[in-house]
Design a protein that fits this description.
This protein is an alpha/beta fold. The protein is built from ten helices and six strands; from the N terminus they run ααβαβααβαβαβαβαα. Helix 1 packs across helix 2. It is globular and about 60 Å long.
Length: about 260
């Protein structure tokens, strides 16, 4: 009886995570969706800005998940990189084209999720994780080729609301092997985004970090697509935080 109730709850959360079009999602996205099922504070007005602690420990959820059969839409954990960095980013026959944008994710699981839901094709934006840096030389040439036009290539960075995440854009700029013409643009997460969305944080303290995977899958896909395609562009130094903020990169839809 207990297993049936637990699996029913997990499957209900999985069905919500996959809305509206059968989206693929990570294990931690399912975990956070279950947290929203148990405590639906995301439905509160955005003017009440706060994050919330998880009602159930991640270890307990993992135990519940093991008691259930296959969950539709759930992605396998990302595999560890076993080849030269950058080899999985694109094909050799594309290296002769200019590339105006690329998205770097702090989480390999998030990068896999975005690719599994066809974001690179929908947004004309390759998606990689920090584990795939430094960039393949072919991708560097593609990004640099964009500088021949009025618009320089943009390297968007999707990161957690954490000290490590907030430092990631600068790290990518300094160690990612980017062309000098590229501009790094962080698109979140920051506390000014996570609090209005009432996202689930990692611990009980208000200052605890918030993972990108706490964003509902459909909201994440819609937000990232809009941000990498619609952010206003202008030529600036390598890391252009003020321009990115003025362009609205801190604005995420609520649901």
């Amino acid at each position: 009886m207990a297993d049936r109730l637990i699996c029913g709850l997990v499957r209900h959360a999985a069905g919500r995570a996959g809305r509206p079009t059968g989206l693929r999602f990570t294990e931690r996205q399912l975990y956070y969706e279950l947290c929203r099922v148990l405590l639906p504070v995301h439905l509160l007005p955005r003017r009440l800005a706060f994050t919330v602690p998880a009602l159930i420990p991640i270890g307990l959820f993992e135990g519940w998940l093991q008691r259930c059969d296959t969950i539709d839409g759930l992605l396998d954990p990302p595999e560890a990189a076993t080849s030269d960095l950058g080899n999985s980013t694109t094909e050799d026959d594309l290296f002769d084209y200019a590339l105006p944008r690329i998205l770097v994710c702090q989480s390999s699981a998030v990068a896999d999720m975005l690719r599994a839901n066809s974001l690179p094709m929908e947004s004309a934006c390759p998606v990689i994780s920090v584990d795939e840096l430094p960039l393949d030389p072919g991708l560097v040439r593609m990004l640099d080729a964009t500088s021949a036009t009025d618009e320089g290539a943009r390297v968007y960075v999707l990161h957690d609301d954490s000290s490590v995440g907030l430092a990631l854009p600068q790290t990518v700029a300094e160690t990612g092997g980017l062309p000098e013409s590229a501009i790094v643009v962080p698109i979140g997460l920051r506390r000014s985004q996570t609090a209005p969305l009432h996202l689930t944080r990692s611990g009980w303290r208000q200052a605890s970090y918030v993972e990108v995977e706490s964003v509902a899958p459909a909201v994440l896909l819609r937000s990232v697509h809009r941000l990498v395609r619609d952010v206003h562009r202008r030529r600036e130094p390598l890391v252009d935080l003020p321009a990115a903020r003025s362009a609205g990169f801190l604005t995420w839809p609520q649901r």
